[in-house]
Amino acid sequence: KPHAVIFDLDGVIVDTAKHHFQAWKQLADELGFNFTEEDNERLKGVSRMDSLNILLEIGGLNKSESEKQELAARKNKRYVEAISVMDESEILPGVLRFLQELKEHNIPYALGSASKNAPLILKQIGLYEKFNAIVDGNSISKAKPDPEVFLRGAEELSVTPGNCVVFEDAQSGIEAGKAAGMYVVGVGDSAVLAGADDYIRTMEEMTVSRLEK
Ligand code: G16
Ligand code: MG
Predict the structure, then answer these.
(1) So what's the pLDDT on residue 44?
(2) Which residues contact 1 (CB under 8 A, 6 or more apart)?
(3) Where does Mg(2+) bind (predicted)?
(4) pLDDT for the residue 168
(5) Which has the least CB within 10 A, 43, 111, 142, 197?
(6) pLDDT at residue number 192
(7) Which of 6, 9, 10 has most ligand 1 atoms within 8 Å of its beta carbon, as the pocket-test mutant?
(8) Residues with beta carbon < 5 A to ion ligand 2?
(9) What is the ipTM of this complex?
(10) What residues pair up with 199 in beta bridges, in sequence order?
(11) Residue with CA closest to ligand 1 atom 6
(12) Is the peptide bond before 145 cis (omega within 30 degrees of 0)?
């Protein structure tokens, strides 16, 4: 039985990728190039600045550090506008039921997200108070695939990494979880996500008893 669980946010608890995509696409339009849903896959789990660098590479553009700051701020302003109207109806299927099951088994759970907007999103969907710890883009220095975000989560829950289960939808996140020495469940297509210990399509397939095996 796991001693603790750590959840990624985007793609596991909520689908904010669509809001990130709209905001990046608008920025690309303004910069004069097209940005596709396929391109957007490369930004999942990646920090804001690294995402901007990938976007500029796709557009074949070079920007100064101060221009990059302005572009990232412009994108984030629109993204924050979009997530500010989110509510609990956007929680992905199976999540609330699984969180309830963890509570019944006295298994604490933390958030381990690359997003600096994670607290705002959790407040919008009404889950902020339910997490025993929140580790996000504001408190980490090394982005996934570095294990820092998950190791910090284990530390804040006072459990050893080997007793933690991580839920991740991004390749960089699966690598981060494995580098932290944790059991990793990939959320999504096992043909696309490599290296996880188990795979589910959505949280609806997850139960505590499945983790006990
Ligand atoms: C999320 C998304 C990424 C996004 C990153 C930073 O991470 O998957 O696409 O670039 O956060 O977000 P922000 O600009 O809000 O700081 P996660 O780790 O929750 O999947
Ligand atoms: Mg994610």
Answers:
(1) 87
(2) 105, 107, 208, 211, 212
(3) 8, 10, 168-169
(4) 97
(5) 142
(6) 87
(7) 10
(8) 8, 10-11, 45, 169-170
(9) 0.92
(10) 186
(11) 115
(12) yes
pTM: 0.94
Query: Any idea what the Cα angle at residue 197 is, between residues 200 and 175, rounded to 5°?
Result: 100
Q: DSSP string spanning the chain?
A: --SEEEE-SBTTTB--HHHHHHHHHHHHHHHT----HHHHGGGTT--HHHHHHHHHHHHT----HHHHHHHHHHHHHHHHHHHTT--GGGBPTTHHHHHHHHHHTT--EEEE-S-TTHHHHHHHTT-GGG-SEEE-TTT-SS-TTSTHHHHHHHHHHT--GGGEEEEESSHHHHHHHHHTT-EEEEES-TTTS-S-SEEESSGGG--HHHHH-
Report CA(40)–ligand 1 centroid distance (Å).
Answer: 12
pLDDT of amino acid 213: 81
Q: pLDDT under 70 in the chain at which residues? A: none
Q: Is 116 annotated as a binding residue?
A: yes
For 187-207, the pLDDT digits (tens) are 999 988 999 999 999 999 999
Active site residues: 8, 10
Q: Is 172 annotated as a binding residue?
A: no
Q: Which amino acid is at 101?
A: E
Residue 108 has what pLDDT? 98
Ligand 1, atom nearest to 50 Cα: 10
- Which pairing describes strands 164-168 and 183-187: parallel, antiparallel, or unpaired? parallel
Atom of ligand 1 nearest to the CA of 75: 14
